Amino acid sequence: MQLEKEKKEKREQERCRALAQRIVEEANPASAALLGEQMSLLAKALHRAGVEAEEWTESSAAELLVVTDPAWETLPETLPARVLLVSDESTVMAGWAEQLAQRGYFRDFGWRSKGRVQQSALFCTSQPTQLKMVRGYEMEMDILRDRMVRAERTCGEEAELIARLRSDLSLSRSHEQQLEKTLGEVTGSKFWKMTWPMRYVVSKSRQLWHTLPFFVLLRELRSGGIEGVRELARARREYAALFPGKVMRADRFAPVELLVRQVGDQPAGPKISIVVPLYNTPLDFLEELLDSVVNQTYRNWELCCVDAGTAPGVGEMVQQRAAVDPRIRYRKLEKNELIPGNTNKGIEMATGDFIALLDHDDILHPCALWYAAKAIAEQGADFVYTDEATFEGKVENVVLYHFKPDFMLDNLRSNNYICHLTLFSRRLMDAAGGPERMEYNGSQDYELFLRLTETARKIVHIPHALYYWRSSPGSTASDISAKTYCIDAGIAALKAHYARCGVAVDDVSLIPGTPGYYKTDYTIDHPGRVSILIPTCDHIRDLETCVESIYARTTYPDFEIILIENNSKAPETFRTYKRMQKEHPDNLKVVTWEGKGFNYSALNNFGEKFATGEYLLLLNNDTEVITAAWLEEMVMYAQQKRVGCVGAKLLYPDDTIQHAGVGFGIGGVAGHLHKYYPASSDGYMGRLNYVQDVYADTAACLLIRKEIYDEVGGLDESYAVAFNDVDFCVRVRQAGYTNVFTPFAQLYHYESKSRGMEDNPEKQKRFQGEVLRFQARWGNLLAAGDPCTNPNFDIQREDFSLKILPLE
């Protein structure tokens, strides 16, 4: 009961925090008056955001009145110039809108109502034009229609799923009963009872085979020969002397031979200072941490422990270790300055050229510093990070592997994916403005990493899980909602990052329902025309769905549609072309390609000649727009000079993923990441929720600046059907641009309806030829792998299945 109460309080705190942030970002009042439920929580959140907030009274002089749960409130006699209604029940808005209209208040459609649960609407005394009012309400109706359609579809799918699960459960129970009956018959039989001594002997023999030294020696001789046995024995003797940690033994993580070999092959790296802020650390956790550090195969390190806690035994344990190993240093702090301040005290102690940050209840893999030092010595890295694993209880009980991409700016701007283990040079830290900052407490590492990566000369990612993050109640590893102040600090860190980089943004917000993932709304400084190129051949109903959804739902003001006619035969197709041109004479035209067959590359290259826009959008005719702001979401990235292709989130009609970025090398060429995942899924480590850098995007919906399209020579027409988009994206990357996927632009994609499937020998031969051509052209890059994913994923699958690399 208490736990449920705490969860409810956390949810309310988060809702109030998000609402306060939006009020500041969009309404920007100096003062606000509050009326309704959760006034105290909202008042605190507004105070933290810099807004004076108090309970509503008739004498209040606030600029904004915020009414929560308006269904239970009475409209005050006197009102300020702006009134914000916030409700869990969308049905109450109509009645209040009518009351406010009678008082001379009108809906302000500049206020963006985010979220499907908590609805909000801003009313003010300035009257919009009739056209703006109609357009605003129509946009709201479109949003509601889309939500209703998707909700109905989801309900139907859930009902079917429940029916299947009930059927499966019934079958499972029947099968369980049958197995229990069979098991009872077997164990109750005379033969089972008579053979018990024989089974016992066999079981014990197997145990002896795996544990008795003589049999173990025989297995080792068979696998490695006499020399292998000698080498293993030597390594075991050396291991005992080299790795003193007994509780958290190094050989729990890696083979003895590898550990000893790394000790004997020391990289010419710098001294690494490991900084650990201690605070009432459980002694068993601390002992494991200390063992994991002294067991490092890289020897040039020091451990700087700063203790701000009051728990007995912590300081004594560290000092006992320091008496044995002088590389361990301890300092008792006079007061607790929270994680940023305590960490900075540890950095002041450090004498190494590189700093590594380690949490007081986590564990380092014994090879962690060796790989980092190797990257520093051989690649000149000044910023290094590794993959990590989250565990519960024993370190072997890994519940999650976080295998990360190489450094990707858009990923970092969406969440602190770098996290643990991170090392950086002291020179880099000083150049980036010093260590951690108190004003970002809760996201101090994120803020530091943003500054460091802005300045770093060489960032190296080590694709091995070398940091073990302990998941415990209240830890960020288990649930960031346990520390809601982290979210505010993360948003502030991102805003500061954009200010330093000179990047204009309209808003930075937490993506609802996610554990610390952020959405950036970049200011669209270059809102040029988008030329939408749609190759089409008959299948006129699909084309009508596509075109009508663009005109009905798109809020981006400046676009044109170029229909590229490709050998259509049906008279209805041409009648539809004429009707569309008559309905949209200013921004829809039809151009006719004179080629034969289907060549997607040639069709788009032909259509591009007629484009008048600054941006080109390659779009299949079997798509349908879902999100109204899809073009805004794509243009805000395509306008950036560093960005090349921008792809959207495409769904099959059954609301499963068709495209969420293309993984390079999957299946020998490329594959769609998260294919067939449910649209509601978060994906691997939340990757379906946030904007990220990808190797390639599908040309079924791909936006790019026209100047880049021309720079790389457009699509390669030797790829008639398959891989033309991947080849194009590779060439865009080779030209120095970043390709991006955004989940906030969503469309349905009824894939391959126009061109058909690869279902005859001629098509299959053409497809195989394009595969071989692609592999011959990009063989070196395919061998290098996809830096936007991770080499620990199974290259034959699109679902982020693991195939963990061995340590070398």
From TrEMBL:
Species of origin: Faecalibacterium longum
Domain Glycosyltransferase 2-like: 273-391, 531-661
Lineage: Bacteria, Bacillati, Bacillota, Clostridia, Eubacteriales
InterPro entries given in the database record: Glyco_trans_2-like, Nucleotide-diphossugar_trans
Protein name: Glycosyltransferase family 2 protein
